[in-house]
Structures are given as structure tokens and as C-alpha cells.
Amino acid sequence: MPENESPAISRIINHEIILQHFGYWPDFHDAEITKVIFETHPTGRYSIAFLIDAFEMTKEIDERGYYKLSKHCTVELQFIGIQSLNFEGFSFQNVIFDLVFEESGDSIECRLSSSNGLEAAIIAEEVFVLSLTPTKR
Fold it and tell me: Superkingdom of the source (predicted)?
């Protein structure tokens, strides 16, 4: 586990999918949340899922002066057994500044800081990486 990686990452079910794609756990800086799904469950353990368009920002600069991007993908994260939720600012564009996971007792806390749009804080019993789909850009 890299020095800056939270122990909570290893508790995320299927986190290996993201590690395999990027080679590390990213902070999702400048990734965009394109879809949020709230679901109820008969068990009372409702869930929230985020669809995130993510990439890796390289140190290389293109001809226009922008950092080159690689490893484009769409990641779906699901939070089940929500214990606490703060969700505000969802907009036409929801750009992540960073996505931080920490342990909170037996649960996992996720803080989503925004550059634009959605800000969220979630404490959930479980977090899943439902999918990672490479995309072309």
C-alpha cells in the first residue's frame, strides 16, 4: 500500500480493478460524475451509486499547453448501508477536486470535494467498485 493510500481503500470491494487499471489508487482529480443513482432496498440498506468519468493526468504537455491525459475509463462506485449522507450542489457539471476514503469504525467514510457542482460526504457499511470500463478519448 502506498504511503498516502488510506487503509479504507483495501476495504472497498473490488478495489483491485482500479489498482490494476491505474497502477495505484487515484484521487480522481478533475474526474466528472455523470450519473448518481439512489436505490431503495427491502432490507432498509439503501444505496447510492456514482458513475465517474476518470483518467490519469500525465506530466506531458500537448501542443495547446494542456496536460496530456491517459487511462480514460468510466468507474461505477456503489455505497450500501448508508449511515450518514450529505449531498449538495448536484449540477449540469460535477467535477471532482478529490475523493477521499477513510475508516469510520466498522464503516467507510467518503468525502467528495468538488471543483464544480456536487459535494458529498457519505458513511456506508460497504463500498463496491461495480465496474471499470476503459474508454477512448
Answer: Bacteria
